[in-house]
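User: For a benchmark we're assembling, each entry needs the component sequences followed by a predicted structure for the full assembly. Here are entry 17's components. Please fill in the structure.
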Amino acid sequence: MSPVAFRAMGTSWWIHCDLPSHLAEAEALVHTLEARLSRFRADSALSRLNRGRRVTCPTLAAVTRLALGFRAGTDGAFDPLLGAELAAIGYDRSFEHLGARHDTARTWSGRLLHTYVTIDGDEVHLDGPGDLDLGGLAKGYAVDRIIALLLERGATSVLVDGGGDLRGAGPSFPIGVGDGLVVESHHGAIATSSTLERRWLTSDDHVRHHILDPHTGFPSDSPIDIATVIAPDAVTADALATALIVAPEAILDRLPDFAAHALVRAGDGHWWQSPDAPIAASTPMASPTVATWSKSVYPGHAELA
Amino acid sequence: MTDPKTRSRLVDLSVIATSALVLGGAMLVVADVDRSRPHTPSVPETTASVAVPPVSGLLPAPSPTRRVVVVRRSRAS
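Assistant: Structure for entry 17:
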């Protein structure tokens, strides 16, 4: 039965494939990756690394390598070593269990916990007090792995949505972005980050969100509240979407290095795009199959999950 | 019986009176029409507000031309 929809990694997943018999295998892959890469599962390889500072896991090593590459490529705007800081400001459990109002038992002073990562083969080693957090990057990685798996199994038409990280293969699918705009999936994977999602209120009425500024350890105070990136793969699109919120000017300049494009919404509600971004107003011939932004943008429209 | 000269003056007078009535009525009609036409409201001069990109190098995104029907709506992270 295609598509298949399920929950994993704290978000909703949706996979369309013209070989429906392999959808169960694709879903199992997501759950396997979650079991290894989740910060919120005590038995995951990532949690064991953060507790014991050393773990051997090929998947964790591969995704950590990618994460460190994006940290270098974005001059630190994307930083996977803010796990402890994120927990300290209140994001210390899966967002599904966090609630709209939440305080943490720990007091956060804003001090950054400088930590170094060493990868030796399949072994990952942490040196310092901070924690590794592969959050959205793991999602993008899973989307890319599903595409590879289903193509390898012989599929010719695939579309994966991992909680807003989207990638298609085969025929092009129109993907809704921004406010009534469309990107064709043959241009690449699409990921959206936003300071308007995964936010909560502390008991003393401070708004927190999950995108931290690596220079302060506090939620980023960005002029951009939504960033959508189109990149050759989902893991790149996800990392750059986060980095674009944190350091818009620097990352905008670097998008060509990653063959990436962006669509952003400024705090005043206006939408802007990087030069030559393959973004168009939707037409009757290109109405989106999947849209990456929340309900407020498309009030009253049909939703068939 | 009035003499021809007096009759001629009376005719002139009646023509002038009729013309004055017609002209006055016409002016009233014009004034009424003028009063009922929509007046341009006086608004203070304003400068058009131009959106400023949050970061230099960005271009305005296209404006949506139609409302779209979304089959599945995902959320950002």
